[in-house]
Amino acid sequence: MFIRTERSIKEFFQLYPVVTIIVGVNIFLWLIIDFLNLQIGNYLRLYGIGINAGIAEGQWWRLITPTFLHAGAMHMLFNSFSLVLFGPALEQMLGKIKFLLAYLGTATTANIVIYFIESPTYAHLGASGAIFGLFGIYVYMVVFRKDLIDQSSSQIVAVIVTIALVMTFLRSNISILGHLFGLFSGFIYAPLLLAGVKSYSPWTRPRPKSRKYADGDGPQFDPNRWNQKRKVPEVIRKNMIWIIVAIIAILWLLGQANIL
Q1: What pLDDT digit, counting tens, does each position of 5-47 carry?
Q2: Residue 259: what are its φ and ψ, rounded to 5°?
Q3: Distance between CA atoms of 210 and 218, rounded to whole angstroms?
């Protein structure tokens, strides 16, 4: 469910446009704000971060815009990597509109809770609330919709969510409320979002048509595809779950803070 089988960035974009656009926005904003340090980037950061005092003055957009801003390269890379790993399956299952609503809705819900509970001077940024929102949807699948998720994917979700929650309380400068209520909102919204959806597998989902063989002019797949898959060493195939877990855990540990 979380193994990427796309053969190019173009194919990934064709299959998961919402995930690709969000990651592109994350990278673009990091480039102009942190890497290039442009003046317009400074304004975007100033007026985009989640400041409770600003929200109290009617700057409601601060409930949404912090989701696309990050505190440094590793913070941005971790959240973008997590979205690339966990977002595609949900985008395919939910559809573009519902997936976007899930991503922004869970993040906004977490930011609303932060606004009502934290002090007026509290400031935060980062997509962690949205990422935890996706985790919450997967947790709901593991508990109540086992027909939508396979056993190995359930194990990945259990391990990743456990690591994420532990690190939430162990590391400093983490928006604990953002993480917890992102997860909680994803879990609560999941029954509505998952109504009528079908299970997803990267091995069975349709691929975009190749121009070379468009409109039924020829085969729509590589006849050597399965032979190529066997080139992956057996030790990697058997331990794919733990390799993915280790990569995410390392990125999490290296990630930047999301409280200013």
Answers
A1: 788 888 999 999 999 999 999 999 999 999 888 889 889 999 9
A2: -120, 135
A3: 10
The b/e string for 114-147 (b: 16+ C-beta within 10 A; e otherwise) is: bbeebeeebbbbbbbbbbbbbbbbbbbbbeebee
| 20 SS3 class | helix
Model pTM score = 0.81
Domain 9-201+232-254 has CATH 1.20.1540.10: yes
Q: Which residue has the tokens 């939508």?
A: 148
Q: Is 124 a catalytic residue?
A: no
Query: What phi, psi does 51 have (nearest 5°)?
Result: -110, 120
Catalytic site residue 179? Answer: yes
- Other CB atoms within 10 Å distance of the CB of residue 187: 21
Catalytically annotated residue among 70, 75, 179, 185 = 179
Q: Which of 128, 153, 175, 185 is catalytic?
A: 128
Task: Kindly list the domain boundaries of the chain, sorted by start residue.
Answer: 9-201+232-254
